[in-house]
Amino acid sequence: MYKGEVTSLAKRLQENIILRRLVLSEDYFWTSPLAFWEIPNSLKNELAEANLILVKRDANYRRLLCDRYWHSTTNIADIVCYLPAPMVALVVKNRV
């Protein structure tokens, strides 16, 4: 990315944060070793208000799937049915 593109992206992100279209949530759970199905009720209630949950990185992807082997035909929606809102998982590196 070039400086102008980064500046434009930063401005759009900041505007969306101000308008509450993008909400950044700080909670111990995000850095804990707990599986996503162990999400605290307080955080689950907060996420229930979201239109979309964005999960990133390999470790969180593994936490979503409880670090288990799933058959390739298994629908991920069936695995993460405990989440209170639609979810997108961004994985850059995954050896599972």
Order of helices and strands: HHEHHE
Q: What sort of overall outline do the alpha carbons produce when their principal axes are compared?
A: globular
What proportion strand? 5-15%
Number of strands: 2
Q: Sheet bearing the most strands, described?
A: 2 strands, parallel
Concise structural overview:
This protein is mostly helical. The protein has helices at residues 3-18, 41-47, 58-64, 76-79, and strands at residues 53-56, 87-90.
Q: How would the blueprint of this fold be written?
A:
Blueprint: H1 3-18, H2 41-47, E1 53-56, H3 58-64, H4 76-79, E2 87-90
Parallel strand pairs: 1-2
What are its keywords?
96 residues, mainly alpha, 35% helix, two-stranded parallel sheet
What features would you describe in this structure?
- The protein is mainly alpha-helical and 96 residues long.
- The chain has 4 helices and 2 strands.
- The longest helix has 16 residues.
- The model has no long low-confidence stretch (mean pLDDT 88).
- It has a two-stranded parallel sheet with strand order 1-2.
- It has a domain of 66 residues.
- Belongs to the damage-control phosphatase family. Sugar phosphate phosphatase III subfamily.
- Its cofactor is Mn(2+).
